[in-house]
Design goal:
Layout (H helix, E strand, L loop, with lengths): L3 E5 H15 L2 E5 L1 H5 L3 H10 L4 E4 L2 H9 L6 E3 L8 H6 L4 E3 L2 H8 L5 E6 L14 H13 L3 E7 L11 H16 L7 E3 L3 H6 L7 E4 L22 E6 L2 E5 L4 E2 L5 E2 L4 E6 L16 E4 L2 E6 L7 E4 L10 E5 L9 H8 L3 H7 L5 E5 L1
Parallel strand pairs: 1-19, 2-3, 2-9, 3-4, 5-6, 6-7, 7-8
Antiparallel strand pairs: 1-10, 10-18, 11-14, 12-13, 14-17, 15-16, 15-18, 16-17
Helix pairs in contact: 1-3, 6-7, 10-11
This protein binds pyridoxal-5'-phosphate (PLP).
The site of pyridoxal-5'-phosphate (PLP) has 12 residues, from helix 9 and strand 9.
């Protein structure tokens, strides 16, 4: 066995179906950042097979890569750069997102009939037209529709705190979105959308015509402690062979800086992946893995290519399976457990895993 990432595409399909059923509206599966580390093309294909109506990505390059891989369905991108090749996007039938009059002018300058979605900033203060410029963006969009420059296919926005259901920003943003829609009179978008995974699961009033599901499609929980149990299945497992096991005496320091010192004689195991593969260094002395069926603690610092675990006196054979995380069904930690140990969110755990690891798909 080589260290590898195993991606369960049946789990992705299951999750996509369960989520769509839960909301009862159309769904977009978000596959940016190489499908949150799971593989953009493969996840998009599985999501389409499971009935996802739309695929969403951040960059235009991601969208073009999906088209080059044969994806043909409704596809939205939203993070365009100043020198964006709008013509290439339009020719590929990609829905582009505009935040400003200047971007709409640039799209019109291609002379090609585009599919354009307008993004309004309802309070995240990230991308999107601020409410002050929204009327001008809408006006330019109406003009462009009349002169055949484009069809406005969507109007959308994005939450700041949907993983905290009681956060006051949620109501405020939903209200701002309704106002923005009211100001967009005369435009007839196919889809109005605001919700990501957490809002899709927790806030039915925000569903409108479409929910953009990223994290939940991969079977992970976007709002731990709040989310109803839909039986979502984590799609990613990361495992490696145990490279070595040996005894160390009391007083032995482990890994760089000796941030852990054995109090009693013990045995340790070497796991041959590290932060070069995206195993977060902040999991040093905190993360756990499953070795030969038992959970074991990381001792000392996670290094670039390897880390050490405490085997508590056992000496499993080299080559024994080490599972970093997976769905949890064999007793292994989950990506959420790693997020808790490393002080981050499960999004970062799965998205950062990669580097030298091969990815293997199971259908
Ligand atoms: C990443 C992203 C999503 C998906 O968010 P999840 O929390 O993973 O569901 C949806 N919309 C936009 C604009 C995003 O950037």
């Amino acid at each position: 066995m080589n260290p590898e990432i195993v991606v369960d595409l049946a789990a992705v399909r299951h999750n996509v179906r369960a989520l769509r059923e839960h909301t009862g509206v159309a769904s977009m599966t978000v596959v940016k950042a190489d499908g949150y580390g799971h593989g953009m093309v493969e996840v998009a294909r599985a999501a389409r097979e499971a009935g996802s109506d739309w695929i969403g990505v951040a960059t235009l390059d991601e969208a073009l890569a999906l088209r080059n891989a044969g994806d043909e369905g409704p596809l939205l991108c939203w993070l365009t750069l100043p020198d964006a090749d709008w013509a290439a996007a339009i020719d590929a039938g990609i829905d582009v997102t505009a935040y400003s009059v200047a971007e709409l002018d640039a799209i019109a300058a291609t002379g090609r009939p585009a599919r354009v979605q307008l993004k309004v900033d309802t309070g995240l203060s990230r991308g999107g037209a601020p409410l002050e410029t929204w009327p001008a963006v809408v006006e330019r969009a109406r003009q462009g529709e009349q002169d055949g420059s484009w069809k406005v296919t969507g109007i959308w926005s994005h939450f700041a705190a949907s993983d905290e259901p009681d956060h006051p920003a949620n109501d405020a943003q939903e209200q701002a979105f309704r106002q923005a829609l009211a100001l967009a009179e005369g435009l007839t978008p196919e889809v109005r959308h605001l919700a990501n995974s957490a809002a899709g699961l927790l806030r039915p009033s925000s569903h409108f015509d479409l929910v953009r599901f990223g994290l939940a499609s991969y079977g992970l929980d976007p709002a731990p402690g709040h989310t109803p149990d839909l039986g979502l299945v984590p799609a990613m497992t990361v495992h490696a062979p145990l490279a070595m096991a040996k005894s160390i005496p009391a007083g032995a320091g482990v890994s760089y800086g000796h941030t852990w010192v054995a109090e009693t004689p013990t045995t340790v195991g070497l796991v041959p992946i590290g932060y070069g593969e995206g195993v977060l260094r902040s999991a040093s002395n905190a993360g756990r893995v499953l070795v030969d069926g038992k959970q074991r603690a990381i001792r000392g610092r996670v290094c670039m290519d390897q880390f050490v675990v405490d085997l508590g006196g056992d000496l499993p054979d080299t080559g024994a399976e080490v599972v970093l995380f997976g769905p949890g069904t064999q007793g292994e930690p989950t990506a959420q457990d790693w997020a808790d140990a490393a002080g981050t969110i499960s999004y970062e755990i799965v998205t950062r895993i990669g580097g030298r690891l091969a990815r293997r798909y199971v259908a």
